[in-house]
Design brief:
InterPro entries: DUF1573, Ig-like_fold
Strand order of the largest sheet: 1-3-6-5
Protein name: DUF1573 domain-containing protein
Number of strands: 8
Structural class: alpha+beta
Pfam families: DUF1573
Largest sheet: 4 strands, antiparallel
Order of helices and strands: HHEEEEEEEE
Radius of gyration: 32 Å
Number of helices: 2
Length: 158
């Protein structure tokens, strides 16, 4: 009895395998799915690219407490609108002000950066710009040599 059950089981497995393998994989592909995959892949190729004219600005030698500002100009060299979602500096003494509106492909934008002149000696600050680019963020830097104001004598001057 065990042999008969084993033989019937083997016959059933072979029959099911041969029936299910007769369908070719290429016949199971739905044309609508292929079209939507192609359009999705094409849309994924459209990304903005943020290209800065300069990525670092040197204020030179400044007096401590003297506010400074500079503008980083960039161009969207990609093929989709550039949207800046955030801009943060490495310190509270530096305040970035990015554009609020999307930048169309081929258009220019400006990132205003204000530095309050704090610190001492050589100072370098980074600004991280978060956008919908392939990398997701870009980094620009400002630097300055901050001098202390000249000390005045404590006593009477002769």
């Amino acid at each position: 009895m065990k042999r008969i059950t084993t033989i019937f089981s083997l016959i059933a497995v072979v029959a099911l395998t041969s029936v299910s393998c007769k369908d070719k994989a290429s016949q199971k592909i739905v044309a609508d799915n292929v079209e939507s995959a192609v359009s999705r892949d094409e849309a994924d190729k459209k990304v903005p690219v943020m290209t800065f004219e300069k990525t670092e600005h040197d204020f030179g030698t400044i007096q401590r407490g003297t506010p400074q500002e500079t503008v980083f100009t960039f161009t969207n060299t990609g093929n989709a609108p550039l949207i800046i979602t955030d801009a943060k500096s490495s310190c509270g003494c530096t305040v970035p002000n990015p554009p609020k509106e999307p930048i169309a492909p081929g258009e220019k934008g400006e990132l205003l950066v204000k530095f309050n002149g704090s610190g001492q000696n050589q100072v370098t600050k980074t600004i991280t710009v978060t956008a919908n680019t392939a990398k997701g963020s870009e980094i620009v830097r400002i630097k300055a040599f901050v001098q202390a104001p000249e000390a005045t004598p404590a006593g009477p001057v002769k």
